[in-house]
Amino acid sequence: MTDKRPIRNRLFPDLGMGLGLRACHHEHVVNNPVRVNWFEAITENYMLDDDRAFDVLLKIRERFPIALHGVSLSIASSDPLDRDYLSRLKRLIEAAEPVLVSDHCSWSFFDGRNLHDLLPVPFTEEAAAHVANRVQEVQDFLGRRILLENVSSYLTYQFSEMSEWEFLSLIAQKADCGLLLDVNNVYVNSVNHGFDPVKFLDGLPLWRVGQVHLAGHREKINPDGSRILVDTHDQPVCDAVWELYSELVKRTGPISTMVEWDAEIPSFDRLEIEIAPAERIRNRVKESELNVL
Amino acid sequence: MSYKVPSLAEVQSAFTAAIVSGDEAAVERFLPLINESPRGPKAFNRFKVYADAWYIRLEESLREDYPQLHEALGPKRWKKLISAYIRRCPSKSFTLAHAGDQLPEFLEAHLDSYSAKLWLPDLAKLERALYRLNSTCDPVPWSPEKLMLASDHGASDVRLQFQPGVQLLETNWNVEACLEKDAEPERVSARGLLVFRDAQDNLLPTAERLDEDEFRLLKMIENGVTLVELVDAFDDDQWLPNLIQRASEGVVRVTTK
User: Fold this and answer.
1) Cα angle: A204, vertex A209, A213; to 5 degrees
2) Cross-chain CB nearest to A230 (options B3, B13, B49)
3) Which of A43, A69, B128, B154 is 20 to 30 A removed from A108 (C-alpha atoms)?
4) B92–A82 CB contact, under 8 Å
5) Which 3 state secondary structure label does DSSP give B112?
6) Start-end of CATH 3.90.930.50 domains in chain B
């Protein structure tokens, strides 16, 4: 059954241009005018009891819409969902009132151990059903729709039964959730696993995409001369990713977009420059020209 | 030959074992699950991105939390310690901020394997106290008037506690000297070390050595003592000026039933 609908029926508002909120920029953002429309905060950085960062988030929330983006929901883990984590998340959502709440289509925990990574899932019917059920459970608990992000990956499994975009589409439809599309991850995976990244975009129910990530990556050369792209978030967005973003926006129209930068983080001013091309690309597209997605 | 498709739990078990154990056999068991194209990277190189990232991410986080311990051990012993620690004390928290919570006790239990410096575990405890302190919300100073007002509830209803992030350590090494580079700690007679952000001094992170009486007072407050219990525990009222001072510094707060 197709899950494609007109883009005007999309599930989430367009917040404009955003940036990832990082602790080193807290003071700047609190005390200065900035040229972005919204911020994405890493959920787990604001979930600890008596934590100073939480107060900063609330201050920023007074001036900007916030998206909460988690890294430890571990939605695809075979471990049970972590009830304490979900309760903390719910309390944070009630306090910060984010416009968007997201996490990754991946697993981090196994047997209670957190590997602190976004590990890849086999693209099987079993895994899709497992993830979709858990997304539904999370959404029921939180009382709101969440978005799942496609992750960068360096391996795929022999026994996968479908493509990554088919896998994500299946979960999104079954769970009736949103998607956070990381365009850099699509590009990185297309190189690492040899597929056409535009086919990835065209395979998704884009009306479910509520947020876009852009980021930089690095090339790792193996001893045998083969190469792998690694999603490092410590580089400017490359031209190929901008081109792919342009292809996406032609299909979706203006959509909440942000740049992630997590290592060797530059000044806030530099990040404002980094996000600027996305604004120009968005402005070129008029929503009236959009097709059914 | 038939091929049994592994369950999600089996895949995750094999992947975790391959990453964490560093054991060749565990890696060999996982690699056949990975796609490998003739022209692309080998399965091992694909897996290795994850294995490397696991160690690097945890090591960087721990080095950030324990900079002086890293300095005191030197790179080789640090690597040996961290490699053992992350395998034997797995991170179970949703945040990397807790990944180093057990490092001081792990080091204490296995110090012989890493160093002859007996003060290293106490240095690690001080660094843990500082990184917790630095992420905690700002302390609120309690003025003498506010204390008086709270105590109007009746001495048995008034409970004294530490403010969030404040910690009381016990160590006869003056490990606080290590916070300045190249300083070796010495043995001292006073065992109490109070770690707090001083509300009277721009919230500066402070590690202050205590005399025995104040250590005893603060130990009782750490455990959540009532005013009545304090009055009973001390022969005179010398604790009161200390309490007022610590409340104004943002160390102590008052709760009522």
Assistant:
1) 105
2) B49
3) B128
4) no
5) helix
6) 139-256
